[in-house]
Design brief:
about 260 residues; alpha+beta; Serine Threonine Protein Phosphatase 5, Tetratricopeptide repeat; SH3 type barrels; 3 domains; 5-stranded antiparallel beta sheet; two-stranded antiparallel ribbon; about 15% strand
Amino acid sequence: MIPNRSIKIFFFLLFVGLAPLSFAQQNAQALFDDANEMLQKGNYQQAISLYHNLQEQNTVSGALFLNLGISYQRIDSLGKAKYYFLKASQFEETEQQAREALQFVESQFSRQSAVLPKLPWDVATDWLQEHVGAKNILLLGIIFLNVGVLLFIAHWFGQAYPKVLRIGGLSFIGAALLIIATSFYTQYVSKRYSKAVMVTERISVLEKPTEDAPIVSRAYEGYAFTVDHRRSKSQQEWTYVRMSNGLYGWIPNSEILIL
């Protein structure tokens, strides 16, 4: 039987451990409320500062990003507004509001980039990343693989329909290998590439990561890019990007925000 003193010590330690966490949550909520009040009063810069304090504390939510987007929109920083609305759209509770806000912001940009249609495989990969995830795809592949192996083994011992069991087993194994390969490719793509938004007024996309390099194209606030992290590793102040019109080049890190 556990002594009463030990029980008291246990609950005391539990309280001591949970108290800082509870205090941090209360403090974050108070900071968020203060930021919302600044937003309602029209003190947008103060609201943005408070929201960023929360972001630095890793206390993020769809509402935080949505309100940040609204704040930047009110001060006509439309590139950053687009970026934070895109962030908010990744949360179920703010997805609808964020997408509606994005439509409005997109209509406000003075220049629009040409957009090439994505290849079917890229569309499928994006959908899998957003709605399924590489881990879930891998889990499905492992399930298919196990079912296939069991069916294939069963055809050795089962007297009924051995040919059907063999073909079924091989089919499941083949599908499993394809699904597993898809999961690894989806994970590779998600690690190597990210979306980004240009948040400054205008910049040149260059052939090389030097200021005197030949110009590939001009980019303007709100333009979307695909960042190649592997190519960008070789440079500290530059990022290698693919523009929505299909062109590739280098752009300074300070000009974009990566999702």
